[in-house]
Amino acid sequence: MRVGFLGLGAMGAPMARNLRKAGLLAGVWNRSAGKAAALAAETGCAQAASPAELALACDALVLCVAADADVLELIAAIAPALRPGALVIDCSTVSAATARDAQQRLAAQGAEFLDCPVSGGIEGARLGTLAIMCGGSEAAFTAAQPVLAAMGRTVTWFGASGAGQAAKATNQIMCAGIIRAVGEAMAFAHAQGLPLEKLVDTLGQGAGSSWYFVHRAPNMIRGSYPAGFRVCLHEKDLRICRDMAAAAGVVLPVVEDMLAEYAELIARGHGDEDISAIHRLKRELFEQRRQP
Predict the structure, then answer these.
(1) Cα–Cα distance for residue pair 86/73, rounded to 1 Å
(2) What's the pLDDT score for residue 195?
(3) Helical pair 163-191 and 96-107, crossing angle rounded to 10 deg
(4) Can you give the residue ranges of every domain in the chain?
(5) Is residue 139 a contact partner of residue 112, using CB atoms and an 8 Å limit?
(6) CA-CA distance, 188 to 185, in Å (whole number)?
(7) DSSP state for residue 3 in the 8-state scheme
(8) Dihedral sign, Cα of residue 230, residue 232, residue 233, residue 234
(9) Residue 140 · residue 104 · CB < 8 Å
(10) In Å, how far are 64, 213, 265, 269 from 282, measured between CA atoms?
(11) Which pTM was predicted?
(12) Are 270 and 276 a contacting pair, CB within 8 Å?
C-alpha cells in the first residue's frame, strides 16, 4: 500500500515518520511547503506539489489538519484525483457532521473515508502509541489496519461515519475536566507548601492519577507550558462538543466552564501554550487571596 500524508504539524510529522518506518509512506504534502520538503528529505519519500498530485500517486491518504474547513478543503482537492477504491483516513479532530459530509463526497467518487481522530499527545504520535477512534464502514476499517497499526497502539472501530469523531469529542470533554482538576490540585498543593516533585511521584501512583497528571503536572511545577496540545486547539474542540450537546438540547457545565477559562488564557496571549497553562489561572486564585 502506497500511503500519502497531508498535514505535517506537531502530530502529523511524527505520525508520518512512523508510516515511513513501516514501509508505507510514499509522499507528503503540507500547506507550508518547507515542512514537507524537510520531511521528504529526511525520510526519502516524495514531496507532492499539491494534494491532487499526492492522491494520484497513492492508494491511501492520511489527513491531519486543524479544523473542519481544512478537512473539507482537502477533500474537495483530492476527490477528483483519487483512484477507484482509494482510502482516505482523516486523523483530524472535527465535528461528526463534517466527517459524514466528507464520507458522502468521497463515496460519490468511489472512494472510502474513515474518520480516525487520535489521542495520546505528541508523545504518542512520536512513539506510535496513539489511541485511534474510527468511524466508517467496517470494510474500510479492515483495509486501513496496516496504516492505523503503524500510528497507534489502541485502534477501535465505533461504527458508521462520524462515530470516531463522537468518540473523540467524548475524550475532549474528559480532558477538559481532568486538566482543570490537575491545575487546581497543583495550585492547592503549592499553596500548602508541599514538595511538588515528590507529590507528583507519589500521587502519580494513586487512585487520582491520570496521563495528564503524570505528564503535565511537571509543566505546572516549572511554570513553563511548551505546546503539546495547544489551548487554542482544545478550545476549538470544546466548541465542537458544545454544538453536539446543544443539538441534543443539553448544556455541559464542564465544557462551558473550560471554554470561559480558555477564553481568558487566549485573551492574555497564551493560546499557543499547552493546555496545562490552565494552571496560570488556578495559581492566581491563591495569590489573589494573599493580597492585602
Answers:
(1) 18
(2) 98
(3) 150
(4) 3-159, 167-290
(5) yes
(6) 5
(7) E
(8) positive
(9) no
(10) 32, 15, 12, 17
(11) 0.94
(12) no
For residues 189 and 205, give the distance between their C-alpha atoms in angstroms, rounded to a whole number.
17
Fold observed for domain 167-290: N-(1-d-carboxylethyl)-l-norvaline Dehydrogenase; domain 2 (1.10.1040)
Which pLDDT belongs to residue 147?
98
Which residue type occupies 134? C
Q: DSSP of 140-191, one letter per residue?
A: HHHHTHHHHHHHEEEEEEEESTTHHHHHHHHHHHHHHHHHHHHHHHHHHHHH
Residue 79 neighbours by CB distance under 10 Å = 20
Angle between helix 96-107 and helix 68-78 axes, rounded to 10 deg: 0
Instruction: Output the pLDDT for position 289.
Output: 74
**Domain topology for 3-159:** Rossmann fold (3.40.50)
Catalytic residue among 21, 168, 198, 236: 168
Q: Which residues of the chain have pLDDT under 70?
A: 290-292
Consecutive H or E run containing 131 = strand 130-135
Cell numbers standing for residue 45? 519519500
| Grid cell in block for residue 31 | 500547506
In whole angstroms, what is the distance from residue 120 CA to residue 8 CA? 17
Of 119, 151, 117, 131, the C-alpha closest to 21 is: 151
pLDDT at 288: 84
pLDDT tens digits for range 149-205: 999 999 999 999 999 999 999 999 999 999 999 999 999 999 999 999 999 999 999
Cell 497564551, residue?
270
Active site residue 168: yes
Is the Cβ–Cβ distance between 161 and 196 less than 8 Å?
A: no
Single out the residue of 179, 171, 170 nearest to residue 257, CA to CA.
179
Q: What's the CA gap between 20 and 142, in Å, rounded?
A: 20
